[in-house]
Amino acid sequence: MKLLFVGLGSIGQRHLRNVRRLFGEDVEISAYRVRRLNHTFSDSMTIRDGVNLEEEFNIKVFTDYSEALQNRPNVVFITNITAKHIECAMEAVRAGCDIFMEKPLSDNFDRIQELENIVREKDCVFYMGFQNRFHPCIQYAKTVLAQDMLGNLLSVSNEFGERLTTMHSYEDYRQTYMAKKDMGGGPILNLQIHCFDYLQWLIGIPISVCTTVPETFGIDIDVEGAASSLFSFQTHQGKIIPVYSHTDFFQFPPTHRLKIVGEKGYLDMDLNKAKCSLYVEGVLKEEVCFQQFVRNDMFIEELKDFFDCVKNRKQPDMNLQQGIVSLRMALAAKESGKNHVVVKMEDIV
Questions:
Q1: pLDDT(169) > 80
Q2: Which CATH code for domain 2-131+301-316?
Q3: pLDDT greater than 90 at residue 209
Q4: How far apart are the C-alpha atoms of 313 and 127, rounded to whole Å?
Q5: Strand ranges (DSSP E) for the chain?
Q6: Which CATH number fits domain 133-291+326-347: 1.10.260.40, 3.30.360.10, 3.40.190.10, 3.40.50.1970?
Q7: Residue (of 180, 184, 186) closest to 161 by Cα position
Q8: I need a labelling partner for 58 at 20 to 30 A (CA). Which of 9, 130, 260, 290 fits?
Q9: 67-71, 220-224, 267-271: segment of lowest average pLDDT
């Protein structure tokens, strides 16, 4: 099997390492690289001094994307900056490739319908990289909800914050795509997008959103530094409930929490500590701490799922349509925060 990586920054290299772990030398790896930086990362996001990335992983490098696609890869990993996702994906789909698309799908809704049409026409596997669906806390929440342990849902709240200035200690945060509007930066598209994915997977259908973007100081970026959104969701049971979601580029230590409240009780989760507390009828029914949890395991599991879809020619649960829902949520939240209005999901087209 031939794999092509479009971009080999931190997330691209994580997938690259995991591919080698799963398949060794049984896959041929190429990469389309523009900046061709020499940083070689470890799983803990530290630089491996003296290690040449292209030699270490036996990568055939292309500086022309069309030429890279002429090498006839079976699978293309879209792991470059967000603003370039759609155009790179469409060329790859036209070339007959299956797609692993790192989140988010894009930073706007331009050409989304065109991409949908091409994916449908070519019948390719299109997989969105939302690894948090494989987080043990999210998996536990899915089980709790499937068993109706909380009863009718009343509200949901989540928080995902991390300090941008120290997120990638090996580079100047001001030069990262996360800090730049024209590259698809900001915490909504880079942190909160994960929450939008698992919220719609766990809870139901987002309907509308009202977002407040506070004025922030202390970091040199041209995107929002923080955002708080109140969504209206239609649950899988057909009820309309409030779903609150906050994100920011300031919190340290990082925070990632989710709380689901129902008529019978509530489930409180700390995703960074991999800990869940389930209360039913006022009593702590179960407290689970996934002590063996390793963050990279989520990425391994999503790759296993992706390649199973490729092998068996089946569409994944985390497909293009799921990516569109989370992107619509993100763009609606950004528009609401910018214009100080309630925005309906159906208006993002």
A1: no
A2: 3.40.50.720
A3: yes
A4: 12
A5: 2-6, 28-32, 59-62, 75-78, 98-102, 126-129, 153-161, 204-212, 226-235, 240-248, 255-262, 265-270, 275-280, 283-289, 343-344
A6: 3.30.360.10
A7: 186
A8: 130
A9: 220-224
